[in-house]
Design a protein that fits this description.
3-stranded antiparallel beta sheet, 1 helix, 9 strands, mainly beta, 113 residues
Length: 113
Amino acid sequence: MRAPHDIYAERLAEGVIAYQTCAGCAGAVFPPRLLCPLCGSDRLDWAASEGHGTVYSATVIPRRDGEPYNVALIDLDEGFRMMSTVLGVFGGEPEIGLRVRGTVVEQRVVFHA
């Protein structure tokens, strides 16, 4: 059996924002797992997110030798939450509730305002 993280990494390499769906309770599962955290089922299938979401929370991290960057929690429309960076926001910190679109850049998901 292949590890869920390996499958997720392969999907990222293909430019896909992947997540799992549970056949037992129909819940969205992220990060990738062997069992559904909602119902315990092992019947997890892979799906591709459209990448549309809403900023749930965000903060700006200062760097000692460089520009500060933001870290945000994004609620994806498919029903799961992921941590990432939001690019293109004035002042560096994305506003809570901001609609964003995720893309895969260098095997990581980043969001654009």
